[in-house]
Amino acid sequence: MTEVVPFRGIFYNGEKVVGDDVIAPPYDVITPGMREEFYAKSPYNIVKVDAGLKLPGDTDNENKYTRAATHLEGWLSEGVLVRDPAPAYYVCGIEYTMDGEKKTLFGLFGSVRLVELGKGVYPHEATHSKPKKDRLSLTKHTGANTSPIYSLYSGAKADVGAIVREAAKGEPSLQSTDSDGTVHSFWPLRDKDKVEAIRYALSETSIFIADGHHRYETAIEYQKIMREADGDPKEDRPYDFVLMFLADVGDPALAVLPTHRLVTVDAEGMRKSLEEYFDIRELSEGVDVLGAIEGRPQTFGLYDGENNYMLSCKGNCPDWDVDEAFGMLDVVMLHKLIFGKLLELGGWSYEMDVATARRMVDEGEFDAAFFLNPTRVSDVERVALKSLRMPPKSTYFYPKIQTGFVMNDLKTF
Q1: 140 domain residue, yes or no
Q2: H or E, element range at 255
Q3: Element spanning 198, H or E
Q4: Longest dimension (CA), the chain
Q5: Are 107 and 154 in the same domain?
Q6: Around Cβ 128, how many Cβ atoms within 10 Å?
Q7: 367-392 pLDDT, tens per residue?
Q8: Distance separating alpha carbons of residues 137 and 352, to the nearest angstrom
Q9: Domain at 338, CATH number
């Protein structure tokens, strides 16, 4: 049974720091250059805790994880970070512009009971082991969830959104504007009646992980380690819960962007391999490739270093061994059929920006780029409920939930 409970959050003291100086993007999108910029903004920037620098001479006893723990403890001692005296939820409003339209996504930070994946909390993407090792080391040293998992809830027993929006009418306790111009605002919600109403409304809901699969799997592993160390206690412990940002799966302000694929392949033989199953149409110079494929199912853009093409499935796909719940999803078709059966790849990578992907092909880093339509939220929900996993980077939920607004202590309630 899923539970979303209030918790005694650790957050920045707005009287001592400015949000723009201390809040940062999630660890997995921070480049080395960005990390240096955040370090320079403030000695209290959250990157020092959540995605610290490796330094020459680091050892098992002195490294970015031990420094993260030292920063966290020190900032609490200095009063730069404070801990709520009583359990609360924390509201976040995210105001952004897409295609000229202003939108605001509202959600809340809560502490979610850990359950076996597929038993109320549902993943939708496959994961890699390296990020999980990093997150586990950070959790072991800090004893905290330093960044939230971005999740969507479905089946609430009451209108949580109304309570959240009401709480967001006052002056935020902290605010930060990211590099895209998106404004993130933060409000603690401590009213006991409203806290209890949210707790009841979100009990037994279905929760879908949008972004942060590594963090959830890490939390499960950390729980296992700690329960073994504590002799498998019968009562709840703080590590039986994990920090999440939760938004309503039906919120119209939810946005999912595509992540495109760059491939190393025999470009000359690629077209011959594809044309049996795809209609291949060359696009005129200057045509927007994403605009050309927009809204067309089982359709991809392709750039081979010389021309842009639109690939449309003829409908005579071979037996490519996928569950019907995938519903011929573009990203699954790309990986299972095109990459798995039709082409022999030397490797692939990911890129959000079309122009950057084209440049990387032009400069010889890759031989071709495949462009996709975004995966829909309804597809995520359907696939997750079947306990299936899409390929990594099948979704890019936008905007990213920023790190640093609130942390969850796993040592004590």
Answers
A1: yes
A2: strand 255-257
A3: helix 192-202
A4: 67
A5: yes
A6: 10
A7: 999 999 999 999 899 888 887 888 88
A8: 29
A9: 3.30.1760
